[in-house]
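yo, Ribosomal RNA-processing protein 8 is done. seq:
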Amino acid sequence: MPPPLFEVPGWSVSAEPASSSSSKKSGKRKRPYDPDAPSEKIESAQVNLEKLVNSLGRVDSVKRPPKKKHKGKQILDSSEGVADNSPTIVTPQKDSVGKAKTKDVKKPSKKPTETLPKSKEKGKSTSQNPKDMADSAGQNLTTFQKGMKKKLDGARFRWINETLYKSDSQKAVELMHDDPSMFQEYHAGFRQQVQSWPSNPVDDYINELKTCPHGTVIADLGCGDAALARALVPHGLNVLSYDLVPDGMYVIQADICASIPLPGSEPDEGVGEGHIVDMVVCTLSLMGSNWPKCIREAWRILKPTGRLKIAEVSSRFENVEQFVSLISSVGFKLKSKNEKNTHFTTFEFQRIPRKGKTEKDWEKLMSKGKILKPCEYKRR
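structure:
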């Protein structure tokens, strides 16, 4: 029997190498082929690499283009809204002749922004500056926001209204001087209040006075937005409008409870001289706590037989007779009174000569402003 293969641990190798016909021809020793051996895998990979290089040209003849500052593969950020199929750069290779292969090469777009989807372009068109955005937001308020804005505007109006009625005219002048927009805010709120009235006394006076003789001079004291002048001037009447803030067209700035810039004297007795006004109108304008001084100024600027028209909120009168008595003490005679309206009471007085008064008598008379209560609007 042949000797066992493993007499000791390890392989047993014969003393002389096996002869091979191929080794004799080449004179080289060749190991047996083992496909799983590492060396065989390396040789196989080298052979495949040489075949690939031969098909594309020698490796040392391949010259790649120099790298640019940007990466070879350009992919726009998906956050910019570019689709996944955005163009990419594929590095061209040269064949053996030296010509670049352009097959399957996609050229990048010169203007990547042109490839943006429509949704991105639409997003760009919606960009606005802060001012336009603020204006747009102000015009597109929800129903709830409009309701809240209306309440805030109403609260602002009530605060201004209460301040004007409960302080003297000098305080009102200071407020309007510090914040001229307050005048506009007050009258904007006032116009909203007028919408709930059964009638507006200003409209009643317009219908009544537009039939006055041509050239009649009317002084509108506390005119607001000068609605009387705007309506009556086209009818040939001369309307002089006075209030705390001028508008550059109709309204003349004046504190009607201090001094009205019109001629007219106020002597101790008699009727005085230099008067040019035929009629004085006070429509809801006896506001300050020193409002009796406005009546005294009205007497000074009126002609001897001039008329004084007053319209006031009915709820302000605690005693109508006391009000009439005060006006009469300044130098007027009651001609008519209308209490039919549910909201307003109207009076018409005629100027008459008066007796002289001492300064102490005038101070006492002018301090009776509490005869009229402040006009307060209810919170809605």
